[in-house]
Design a protein that fits this description.
The chain is built from 15 helices and 9 strands. The chain is of the alpha/beta class. Helix 7 crosses helix 8 and helix 7 packs across helix 9.
Length: 354
């Protein structure tokens, strides 16, 4: 089943939303808008409810997850909500000793470097993340006709955190393993693909209308290395959730040279960062895919007129696409003025109304 196939059973409330129609490359009343990291650190109401609560703990409290996920929908009137969580949540859920340190990111106590270390990566079950199912049930009841996007970290990015022990600029340990022990690398990514697919299935079965696979660090690879050492695992994730008929979005940073391959891995929608114009991205991806993106997040710090001018550039470049979801080329920056996001949503809606 593809994302263009109506799921079996009665139509969902969200099926004819502008966001899902754009993902299916169907006519839309306006270009839909949502923002990566819209639920979170740029909003004062988020900082207030998260005060004193560690990041991973906040991801495991259904009432808090629901409130944080809804905040940008209320404030900005975006066309989709994205589930508030973190890409390392499924790893924490299966017992990996890790924490998210403020100002640093995920830090793994014992990096994975040897075959014996794979034994620490057991299969993920729905019971491991029961709080996700509970939160999504609460959210879909609140959101009504607004779609909820579920998400997960892609196998390469999760592997990079696990092998490096935390964020890395050069991914030297990751690449050393990938080149030096390709069998162990393939087994690591395959196991992570199963964990990721299970995490996405939990979200879809709980009510998510679409899913996004974040491959934040994969832009560090050449196309040849991506095709050989990463694409099989990403494709396994997309194949595992294909039968649900929900749109599958694939996004990475610095992936201009990989856009075609990322679509080939199985995505229905390819996310584009700000470095490649949307019309050129469409040429690289090829027909049959919707695109998402791609305003530079730093543009939001410019005066209103400049933001609108840059938004127009994105919309013009996307004007001939089969389907376009307006987004930033990466996540909302922490010090972004929330009012700039609200104005941008209204601007895109108004200037693309059909």
């Amino acid at each position: 089943m593809s994302a263009n196939t109506r799921p079996s059973g009665p139509p969902t409330q969200t099926y004819d939303s502008a966001f899902l129609r754009a993902c299916r490359r169907e006519p839309v009343p306006h270009t839909p808008v949502w923002f990566m990291r819209q639920a979170g650190r740029s909003l004062p109401e988020y900082l207030k409810v998260r005060e004193g609560i560690p990041m991973l703990e906040s991801c495991m409290r259904p009432e808090l997850v629901t409130e944080i996920t809804l905040q940008p929908v209320r404030r900005h009137r975006v066309d989709a909500a994205i589930f508030f969580s973190d890409i390392v949540v499924p790893l924490k859920a299966i017992g990996v000793d890790l924490d998210i340190k403020p100002g640093v990111g995920p830090v793994v106590a014992e990096p994975i470097r040897r075959r014996a270390d794979l034994e620490r990566l057991r299969a993920l079950t729905p019971d491991d993340v029961a709080y996700v199912t509970e939160a999504i049930g609460m959210l879909t009841g609140e959101l009504g006709a607004t779609p909820l996007i579920g998400f997960a970290g892609a196998p390469f990015t999760l592997a990079s955190y696990l092998v490096e022990g935390g964020p890395s600029r050069n991914h030297e340990n990751t690449k050393a393993l990938m080149y030096g022990d390709p069998e162990l690398w393939a087994d690591l990514l395959d196991r992570l693909a199963d964990i990721t697919a299970a995490f996405l299935k939990v979200q879809i079965e709980a009510g998510a209308s679409a899913v996004q696979l974040f491959d934040s660090w994969v832009g560090a690879l050449s196309p040849a290395d991506y095709r050989r050492a990463v694409m099989p695992a990403s494709a396994k994730v997309f194949d595992a959730v294909a039968g649900y008929g929900v749109p599958r979005i694939h996004f990475g940073v610095g992936t201009g040279e990989l856009l075609g391959l990322m679509g080939e891995a199985g995505a229905d929608v390819v996310g584009v960062d700000w470095r490649v114009p949307m019309d050129e991205a469409a040429r690289r991806v090829g027909p049959g895919k919707a695109l998402q993106g791609n305003l530079d997040p730093a543009v939001l710090f410019a005066p209103r007129e400049a933001v609108e001018e840059q938004a127009d550039r994105v919309l013009r470049a996307a004007s001939d696409l089969e389907g376009h979801v307006f987004n930033l080329g990466h996540g909302v920056l922490p010090t972004t003025d929330p009012d700039a996001l609200t104005r941008l949503v209204e601007y895109v809606h108004t200037h693309t109304a059909r």
